Amino acid sequence: MKSLWAIRILFWGLCTLAGYALSQVRPEYVGHEHGAVYGMMIGFGFGGLLIAVDEMLKGFSLRAFSAITFGLVLGMVVALLIDHSGLFDNAEEKVRWLVRLGLFLSFGYIGIVLAMRSNKEDFSLIIPYVRFSPQNKPENLLLLDTSVIIDGRIADLIDVRFIEGLVVVPRFVLLELQQIADSADEVKRARGRRGFEILNRLQHNSKIEVRIHDADFPEENGVDAKLVRLARNLNAKLFTNDFNLAKVAGLQSVACVNLNEIGRLMKAVLIPGEVVQLKVVREGRDKGQGIGYLPDGTMIIVNNGHSHIGQTVSAHVLSTVQTGAGVLVFAEVKPENGK
Question: Strands across the sheet with 209-213, in order?
């Protein structure tokens, strides 16, 4: 943002100098007592006007500008064809001028509005019934938030090519990660450092490219709002572990992937009667129960497993119960040699 204002100030100064230079060659200003001052004021005002227009067009993308230009040209062509059709040849010169002005203004406006409302597929109306296959396919942009970077599973998914594309990390996410790494809380500091380790791992991964994006939205409050807006502007897929951020992104029609949701869906489905190997790590809530975990994190409640704490046992699944927090699996230690 600072570099943008530096360019604006430089442009403003050049406009002022240009106004002074013109005042030295224009006959009406040459020899005038305040001619140089008037020229500099005109240049200064012109530069300020352009900077004000630039500030008002903040957030106006190059795609929108291209669409407006295309729509304006298309509307002008239609207006020109109607003007040369001979319909107004018998009109008076003043009336004809007004008709031409109305035609160009009307069709120019209609062309701009239609172009802004259209998507890239609609531009095929230039050559009806023809579709061109793009030579360069659009990049699959993967926008990462702070939580998914610290989590680290995204790096494993990329390693096994489950996820492919161009990883985009906004600079405001790096700033948030740095603030976490500099925190006085030891746990937060460790999480921040882990996030930087994951980013370093991604940057050295030959299977994917990582880019740091400099875009910022000072008018947006909070990193989440900036992420949603950047994802919408880039047409990128947002990756997060934040449930609320995923919901907000969905409400704004932004493609979002919650890795926690993927992890839940990828857990193995256990069927009653199936035998599993697991280590009983602690006692359960009820008497005689033990608790064990599968490699994917699924918790198994083992009946009569209290005496096997610290041991790896074979257990056959008795039943599964779906709860709001997930699936509860009940199993029983499988007898060995009939005991």
Answer: 209-213, 166-170, 141-144, 237-240, 256-258
pTM of the entire predicted model: 0.49
Per-residue confidence at 22, pLDDT binned at 50, 70, 90? Answer: confident
The CATH H-level superfamily of 141-265 is 5'-nuclease (3.40.50.1010)
pLDDT at 125 over 50: no
Contact 205, 166 (CB under 8 A): no
Q: What are the beta bridge partners of residue 293?
A: 279, 299
Highest mean predicted confidence (pLDDT) among 123-127, 268-272, 311-315: 311-315
Task: Return the amino acid letter for 198.
Answer: I
Q: Residue type for 41, please?
A: M
Q: What one-character DSSP code corresponds to residue 19? A: H
Q: Which two tokens stand for residue 147?
A: 């939580």
Residue with tokens 């704004």: 252
d(CA 331, CA 11): 74
Q: How confident is the model at residue 137 (pLDDT cuts 50, 70, 90)?
A: very low
In sequence order, the β-bridge partners of residue 141 are: 166
pLDDT digits (tens, 9 = 90+) for 96-122: 788 888 888 888 888 888 877 765 545
CA 60 to centroid of chain Cα atoms = 16
Radius of gyration of the chain (CA): 33
Sequence spans of domains, the chain? 1-58, 62-130, 141-265, 275-333
Kindly write down the DSSP assignment for every residue of 187-229, as one continuous string: HHHHHHHHHHHHHHHHHT-TTSEEEEE----TTS-SHHHHHHH
Q: What is the mean pLDDT of the chain?
A: 81
Residue with tokens 């489950």: 162
The CA distance from 245 to 261, in Å, is 13
Q: How far apart are CA 23 and CA 31, in angstroms?
A: 10
275-333, superfamily in CATH?
Answer: Nucleic acid-binding proteins (2.40.50.140)
User: What span, in angstroms and rounded, lies between the C-alpha atoms of 240 and 300?
Assistant: 28
pLDDT (average), residues 257-266: 80
Across 180-194, average pLDDT: 89
